Amino acid sequence: MTQDDPRSHWNRRHTERLSEPAPSAGPSSALTSAVDLLPTTGRALDVAGGTGRHALWLAARGLDVTLVDVSDTACAEATRWAVDAGVGLDVVRAELGADPLPAGPWDLIVVSYWLDREVWTALPGELAPDGVLVLCHATATNLERYERPPRRFLLDDGEMAAMAERLTVADPELEVLRLTEGWTDEDRHEARLILRRRMSAR
Question: Which of 60, 78, 105, 160 could disulfide-link 128, Cβ–Cβ 3.0 to 4.6 Å?
Answer without folding.
Answer: 105
